[in-house]
Amino acid sequence: MSGKQDFREGVRRIFYRLMGLFSLFMIAGAILIYYMIDPDFSAFKSEKNTYVVMDAEEDIDRIENGIHVRTGLKEGEGLMVVVNNCTNCHSAKLVTQNRMSEARWNATIKWMQETQNLWDLGKNQDVIVSYLVSNYPVEDVGRRASLTNIEWYELED
Ligand code: HEC
Description:
With about 160 residues, the protein is mainly alpha-helical. It has 6 helices and 3 strands. It binds heme C.
């Protein structure tokens, strides 16, 4: 009878070994599948979210070919002060399509403060106005250029 018991013992051992092996395969398989989905195991890296936020902030105010992409304003001293104070209520286009002298800019700002709830700009007002005057100067339209090379013809009466 002990032979039968040995046999049973043997079967049980083999069974446990197979179970052990099987669970190893399952674990390895799970890791493999995870690796195929997320090869650099980024879900386990805690810095992941910080990277994303920093990228986004860098993108928002990026400048390409001397133009602040988000607003279309020209790169120049005081750009970000203008972006932060003059593009909240209306598009920057409303600002740039207006070519004004320093005095008229100050008057426009005063008008917005009196009628449109624009806040007190403090020292930033000078920064903003000099940015606008130097990057968007008054276009000297004046008279059109004189005509040249004209072939005059005689009027008949
Ligand atoms: C609190 C809101 C607000 C802010 C901030 C603001 N504006 Fe305005 N602005 C207005 C409103 C409202 C108008 C009128 C828009 C319209 O007529 O459709 C206006 C109009 C203008 C105009 C057109 C004026 C005209 O005569 O037609 C210019 C130029 C202008 N803003 C420049 C600026 C500049 C430069 C800044 C930054 C210092 C600025 N705005 C910030 C509210 C604002």
